[in-house]
Amino acid sequence: MPINVDDLIRDALESGAAHAAMADTSKIVFHEEFRQACEKNVCRKYNTNWMGPPAIGPISELMERARKYRQGLLFQTVHQLDRTFDYQGMLEGGRIHERVFRTLLEKIRTKYAFSEMLPLNAGCCSICERCAYLDQEPCRHPDLAVSSVEAYGIDVMALEKSAGIPYYNGKDTVSYVGLILFNEDETTPDT
Q1: Mind listing the pLDDT tens digit for each residue in 109-158?
Q2: Number of other CB atoms surrounding residue 81 within 10 Å
Q3: Alpha-carbon distance 2 to 24, whole Å?
Q4: How far is CA 120 from the centre of its chain?
């Protein structure tokens, strides 16, 4: 039985998202420039994490992987800052977003029987305090590790616009997005 998208969106909102919508995966725009920002170490995480560049693999492979998904849940968290460049407020907003992302991801894994799923978050994976990549060891939590929307070269602004989610949420705010791509199990149980 197909999922009820209203339930999925409600799950995102109940998990703490400010906005949530189904993303038309055929409208996902990819740009290699976003990956180049990773390579320029804009987020200061380049070459430090299994789920980020270069360890995650070539951008062409990631874009091809993302294109295999027929549906996606896009959600956004919005956080008020004390002032425009409130760095501590941005970090706290990121921590809150991570909790919302993990809560929603667990709910989806428990509640829905997707045949395939690709969860992408804002920024590089942070499930471990120190990624095993730095110690040249395998990922300690491959079932929990997630990559970022940016590492996949996804144009977040275009995706939000196509899904009807605002990119700008007002003065002195910071917003973070998560995208959970999935394919439903199309087999029907015997009756």
Answers
A1: 999 988 899 999 998 899 999 999 999 999 999 999 999 998 999 999 99
A2: 17
A3: 16
A4: 3
Residue type, 111: K
User: Tens of pLDDT along 49-76?
Assistant: 999 999 999 999 999 999 999 999 999 9
Q: Which two tokens stand for residue 123?
A: 């920024």
Alpha carbon 28 to chain centroid distance? 13
Query: What would the two tokens of residue 82 be?
Result: 């004390």
H/E stretch holding 53: none
Whether residue 105 contacts residue 120, with contact meaning beta carbons closer than 8 Å, is answered with no
Asked if residue 101 lies in contact with residue 178, where contact means CB atoms within 8 angstroms, the answer is yes
**Domains identified in the chain, total number:** 1
Range of the domain at 58: 5-180
Whether 190 is in a domain gets the answer no
Total residues belonging to the chain: 191
Residue 177: CB atoms within 10 Å: 26
Q: DSSP characters for 68-107?
A: T-SEEEEEEEEEE-SSTT-HHHHHHHHHHHHHHHHHHHHH
